[in-house]
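FW: tagging you since you asked about this chain on Friday. Here's the raw sequence from the shared folder, copied in full. Didn't touch anything.
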Amino acid sequence: MTLSVTPGRAVDLRIDPVDEILARVERSFQVCFAPDTVVRKRRSVGARTDRDTWVRVERRSLDKISDQGRNGTECAERLENIARPAWRGCVVWGDSDECVMWRADETELLPADPVGTAVLSDDPKLPDAWWQVFNASLDALAAQDTRRLATPDTVSITQALVTETVRAAFLGDFDTTVGQWTPAHADLNWANMTAPTFCLFDWEDWGNAPRGLDSATLWGSSLAVPALADRVRQERRRDFESRDGKLMTLFTCSKIVGPGAHPQDPRLGPARRMAERIVAELQAG
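HL: got it, structure written out here
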């Protein structure tokens, strides 16, 4: 079965029909989805099953699939001391008509609801206990060992990508060379964490990345709520104070204020001000 879309139009699973895809996954896993639990995102859709598990189905173009081995959700099963849902199994199939790969992963149910959308407009007022588990999980992740390369936005993060992205948005005489690479979730936003019980999910893109990528990404998702953005910087201050953390802050800012910037994005002003500050710091050495 294929997903019916208009030729030449980018697929967005938030609006495109997914009934046939979900029906195929139900048959493969021998489960039934609860219709009122279906969550649709741009390139994935998920739902609760009648055996009290969660299934996430992802659509990924073949040119976005790396040669680094097994899927990130599967590989994440070996990670230790991180609050995340356990993986149960998967189903994978290709669609030659669209040159895409579909993958469905079944995991444990999340312990709570997602904090919110990827970019927040209101403060979730998370308790100190939540931040403690959050920090412990991110610290544990950074201490792991992997040969995987992170793929934020499905693109492998390399030194060349960092330099190209930052230089496209900011001028200045400063070095963009990354000094430290550590494991990162690579899609750390408020839609991929739960509260009031902390749990980090959607591990498809995790792998080695410049230190501070996760912290900077979450900060960027919080900029419309100044107090929350400040809390992220406070909690992950060791990342932000490092040179690589400053570089990743610029990397994040470049995606907000760069060539594809949206003029109505409430994050534009804070991102520009932070970028000016970071560029000055990097130029000063």
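FW: Strands lie at 39-40, 44-48, 53-61, 87-95, 100-108, 113-114, 181-184, 194-195, 207-210.
HL: agreed, and The two ends are 56 Å apart (CA to CA).
FW: great, closing this out.
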